[in-house]
């Protein structure tokens, strides 16, 4: 059996009882380590102490290129694949299920909290969100803007937009790929501030931008953790806020209901 188990958003204690029971009976435990991370980062020590099992980190390269290795183990043993948040918050994990089922492997999923529903804490109603977008880091030669049309579409309908911000863990440098010998960049996690800077750059290049520096947004840091941070304000205001350690995400607000406004007031930037 392959168990795909959501860990929630905060720390090792956010696993569900059902998820913990599954982990404890598994022969091998892997933890996905590139689409998100818990409050203590990539260390597995706290998880291993609570779960009573050794945990192997599975980076992007391993999951996308060598998945058949641990899927094959699930033919003859119980294997757990741990995912921060909910198992289906990233398309990679849906692909794992497809591959496992094609190999004749039984799959069981244990769900948990995800950024997709935890953002509700700011008061913006979840059914008033449009398409979610991902904001990647710009480089000197690559400044993608495919997310812009989705934000524009959401705003034209008065809908909120959740922006998931780039995480770069164990990413090979371009130079090393050209040389055929992988050297990895240090980990990088996009901040709310960088995301807004990039969004404004893309918007300013348009004749009629879907948003401006005066557009209302909500910035989140370490959502689901004890020290989570939530600040509502204009893009211009949020650019000046120090949101601290990762992970961050951003919501661009659409048309708001009076009750949503009341909730947002609790998080309003006072500067």
Summarize the structure.
It is built from 11 helices and 12 strands. It is of the alpha/beta class. The chain has a 5-stranded parallel β-sheet, with helices on both faces.
Rg over C-alpha atoms, rounded to the nearest angstrom:
20 Å
Distinct helical segment count:
11
Q: Which stretches are poorly predicted, pLDDT < 50 over at least 5 residues?
A: none
* Bulk shape: globular
Q: Determine the strand fraction and express it as a percent band.
A: 15-25%
The largest sheet, given as strand count, sense and whether it forms a barrel, is:
5 strands, parallel
Query: Which structural category do the helix and sheet elements fall into?
Result: alpha/beta
Q: What order do the helices and strands follow? A: EHEHEHHEHEHEHEEHEHEEHEH
> Separation of termini?
53 Å
What would you note in describing this structure?
The protein has 11 helices and 12 strands. A 5-stranded parallel β-sheet has the order 3-2-4-1-5, with helices on both faces. Strands 6-7-12-10-11 form a 5-stranded mixed β-sheet. It has helices at 17-25, 45-51, 60-65, 67-73, 91-102, 115-118, 147-156, 174-179, 192-204, 235-238, 258-265, and strands spanning 2-6, 28-32, 56-58, 79-83, 107-110, 133-135, 161-165, 167-168, 188-189, 216-221, 229-234, 248-252. The chain has 271 residues and is of the alpha/beta class. Helix content is 32%, strand content 19%. α2 links the parallel β2 (28-32) and β3 (56-58).
